[in-house]
TrEMBL record:
Mg(2+) binds at D69, D88. Its cofactor is Mg(2+). It catalyses: 2-(2-carboxy-4-methylthiazol-5-yl)ethyl phosphate + 4-amino-2-methyl-5-(diphosphooxymethyl)pyrimidine + 2 H(+) = thiamine phosphate + CO2 + diphosphate; 2-[(2R,5Z)-2-carboxy-4-methylthiazol-5(2H)-ylidene]ethyl phosphate + 4-amino-2-methyl-5-(diphosphooxymethyl)pyrimidine + 2 H(+) = thiamine phosphate + CO2 + diphosphate; 4-methyl-5-(2-phosphooxyethyl)-thiazole + 4-amino-2-methyl-5-(diphosphooxymethyl)pyrimidine + H(+) = thiamine phosphate + diphosphate. Keywords: Magnesium, Metal-binding, Thiamine biosynthesis, Transferase. It comes from Methanofollis formosanus. This is Thiamine-phosphate synthase. Its EC number is 2.5.1.3. It comes from the Archaea. Binds 1 Mg(2+) ion per subunit. Belongs to the thiamine-phosphate synthase family. Residues 6-187 form the Thiamine phosphate synthase/TenI domain. One of its GO terms (cellular component) is cytoplasm.
């Protein structure tokens, strides 16, 4: 199954003046598994050009590229997938247009939305938002970790947390059952975005190892004498 551990979303406002391509390059240098190109204001031709440039960078790094909202741009750029919200192109329609293996992610806030998205062909879900965030003005209040646990137990596809997640709370999001976290400010909003991504990745890996130990599927490291 594809790794979604650290999923970095680019943002022209939060990204400290860096282009989407620069943000993507820093994110993968820090170990991001997935980069999402997200821009609400760019024209289609410019977005496609940016997506193609990022495609080269993610491919070199062995990371995946997801384009937000725009299935057409994702397909034209040779991206790995598209991310769709509840008001975007319905996942069933996208699935009909997408080639085999193309990744479709869907934002959900309830178990009903999660089940509908999976039935429609979603490859992964994001609990949107997990905590409140200042990065997306219309995100609304956070659904919290109880909702994350409930949705995780109701579906069989990877579930990500998004919204208000950073080094201070990523471990609890993973411990609640998230397969990964999608972040903006915790990586692209940081002066040293490579270091920030590395730190997030280390925390995610450690939280997943803790869960395996707790479940008895991994032996803890021996204590050194
Ligand atoms: C990984 C991920 N999760 C959620 C979203 C939000 O999607 P949406 O609700 O369609 O809102 P916009 O991002 O389009 O404003 C996302 N982009 N990525
Ligand atoms: C792009 C996006 N979508 C969200 C959703 O809830 O659907 S929250 C969000 C931005 C998340 O930014 P930060 O990591 O800085 O909180
Ligand atoms: Mg959208």
């Amino acid at each position: 199954m594809a790794a979604y551990d650290l999923y970095v979303v680019t943002d022209s406002e939060v990204g400290l003046g860096r282009s989407h391509l620069e943000q993507a390059s820093l994110a993968v240098a820090g170990g991001a598994d997935v980069v999402q190109l997200r821009d609400k204001g760019m024209g289609t031709a410019a977005l496609l050009e940016e997506a193609r440039a990022i495609r080269a960078v993610t491919e070199d790094a062995g990371a995946r590229l997801i384009v937000n909202d725009r299935l057409d741009v994702a397909l034209a750029a040779g991206a790995d997938g598209v991310h769709l919200g509840q008001d975007d192109l319905p996942v069933e329609e996208a699935r009909l247009l997408a080639p085999p293996g193309f990744i479709i992610g869907v934002s959900v806030g309830t178990i009903a939305e999660a089940r509908a998205a999976v039935d429609g062909g979603a490859d992964y879900l994001a609990l949107s938002p997990t905590f409140s965030t200042g990065t997306k003005a219309d995100a609304g209040p956070g659904h919290g970790l109880a909702a994350l646990r409930e949705i995780k137990s109701a579906v069989a596809v990877p579930l990500l947390g998004i919204g208000g997640i950073g080094p201070e709370n990523v471990a609890e999001v993973i411990a609640a059952g998230a397969d990964g976290v999608a972040v903006v400010s915790a990586v692209v909003g940081q002066e040293d975005a490579v270091r920030a991504a590395r730190r997030m990745k280390t925390l995610i890996t450690a939280a997943k190892a803790d869960m395996l130990v707790a479940s008895g599927r991994l032996m803890p490291d021996p204590v050194q004498p």
